[in-house]
Design goal:
Length: 188
């Protein structure tokens, strides 16, 4: 059975997916991370429309058996707390990376980092990433950590149900895999 390994976000090869490093700054009071900035020109940071924050329990997949995609909207994800496997599949007809499926290991702060900073009265930084998902790129994610995940999204359009679509995994064959996607194919 084919397997999909988690990759570091900067290694994503899907055309138009932009990955920008972010730094999570810890101190005994907690942490701070700049998620989206107006000077993030590569991801239209100056284009603010809305933001939302979601919480996902350990082991839960957002879209457990189906892909999510947008016709016009670009998503801009940052995992603030926890760890997800972000599945991306390029089904844009004229894309040079059409048919590619990659799984990004997207990590934010860990509960243990918060405890470490408080207990040791220390300051330190860890890296996270802002990841853009262009229109037409199918996506879904799963909390692969042991604790709650907090994800922020800064979409480039107001919520519009007419712009989003969903397709069951079983109805979408991934050319590089020769079969449909399943969370069972993802290996850490």
């Amino acid at each position: 059975m084919p397997q999909l390994k988690l990759i570091n976000p900067p290694n994503c090869k899907i055309l138009d997916v932009v990955v920008i490093p972010r730094i999570i700054h810890f101190d005994p009071r907690g942490f701070l991370v700049e998620t989206l900035r107006a000077d993030d020109a590569k991801v239209n940071g100056e284009k603010f429309v809305m933001t939302y924050t979601s919480a996902t329990p350990a082991g839960v997949a957002r879209d457990e058996n189906q892909w999510h995609f947008h016709a016009n909207q670009e998503d801009r994800f940052v995992v603030v707390l926890g760890e997800i496997a972000l599945a991306l599949a390029d089904f844009r007809k004229n894309s040079k990376t059409h048919g590619i499926c990659q799984i990004l290991d997207l990590k934010g702060a860990a509960w243990s980092d918060l405890e470490k900073a408080a207990k040791n009265n220390s300051k330190f930084d860890i890296k996270t990433f802002l990841v853009t998902i262009p229109p037409g790129v199918y996506h879904c994610y799963k909390n692969i950590g042991k604790n709650l995940v907090i994800l922020q999204n800064f979409p480039t359009q107001l919520y519009n149900p007419g712009d989003e679509g969903r397709k069951l995994f079983k109805n979408v064959k991934i050319p590089a895999l020769g079969q449909a996607f399943s969370w069972n194919l993802v290996k850490k």
